[in-house]
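Quick one: structure for this chain?
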Amino acid sequence: MASVAELERKAKEALAALPESLGVKERMAIEHQEMPSQDAKARRGNMEEVALGYTEDMAVLEAMRCLGCKNRPCVEGCPVSIDIPRFIARIQERDYRGALSVIQEESILPSICGRVCPQESQCQKHCTVGKALKDVDKAVGIGRLERFVADWCSEEESVPEVKGATGRKVAVVGSGPASIACAADVRREGHEVVMYEALHKSGGVLSYGIPEFRLPKRLVDREISRLEKMGVRMERNVLVGRTRTIAELREEDGFDAVFIGTGAGLPKFMGIAGENLVGVLSANEYLTRSNLMKAYDRERSHTPEYEGRRVAVLGGGNVAMDAARTALRLGAESVDIIYRRTRTEMPARKEEIEHAVEEGCVIRMLSQPVEILGDESGKVRALVIRRCELGEPDGSGRRSPVEIPGSDEEVPYDEVIVAIGNASNPLIKMTTPEIEVNRRGNFIVDEETMRTSMEGVYAGGDIVLGAATVILAMGQGRKAAKAINEYLAKMR
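Got it. Here's what it folds into:
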């Protein structure tokens, strides 16, 4: 990876060489701009953000690659329908405040979505430039441009306008992406909004699930602060479903409507022997201790963290990459990512996989953990791994792993982190039988309004979708907000 100074110099020279009038041919000839990042060896020793972001000239040059398609295929791939060609056109004019305003018409979290959303499988997947070059990695860097304008304008105070008070009250349960989007849109209409968070810090998965090196927590704090400045009241350390039920919020506390965005917080395990040994952790717990409770800051934090030297991470998604890269930063000597398919089938973002490998993680492909072995003191000492081969595609379209008999291998590890997915948070359902769920425990909702089977109660995000992306959760939060606002309008 070239240095920031070198990439900036190249961008400046390329901009200077562009003709005054740019047609399709000239735009297609502009090279895709790399994202500067920390040196791999240096970054595995710190928690600073890995991706450094575009400089101004790099962002303008990347924006010049946009063809401004009239049919706007990229917008179809955006779960919240941001007018992508219009905000990129503003960047071309170096009107960054204007670009941010266009994004904020549909999204309240551009600095976050620009960092963690999988644009390559959403908006950029449909980009005409990427399709013409037959490489989605060469599509216009929409997410990186979104991040650039959000960061450029970060010092400016931007609080959405709130209409006059309506006298209606809405409870928002959870404070992750879906809840943030819903609370903002409901509050804009003048309704009183109270957000309930079970933990001591707001932000949901943005705070406890995504590491600092991918998403600086100051950005999450800024978005929560913006909600509070809009008049949204935060009630932390309130476990709705236990300390307060949905029925009590409606009947005793006087809320006219409730939105539930409690996420998918119940970790799944493999059901193999040895999962109760000391040194076996869910990725949820592991990342929460590091991200939310700052276990990595040993001088100022007293949060205990299991210190593995040789770590195995089970899974191939973004959470597995986050856990593996966190383990390196917490002092692991080696980290193996155990995945039962090949790298091609891994659901994690390509960029996250590449960053993990650059930092020193090893991917053991076509490998199925079948047993965790312990020592005489009950601690992890090894993992039994069975080789696999790929068979026919399963329901997801990926080829199914088929175990190879007699291929078991015992590999020494002293810590195993399980990152194979999460189930929906079960607490609310346990105390609210009126809400219907599917066999996986996800809330069943109307796809257009996000209304549950309980009158006046709506839901969105991972509690409905299972584990999904930030932007998909936001899209559902906005759908629910629209329906809630219409529901409350009929009550006047």
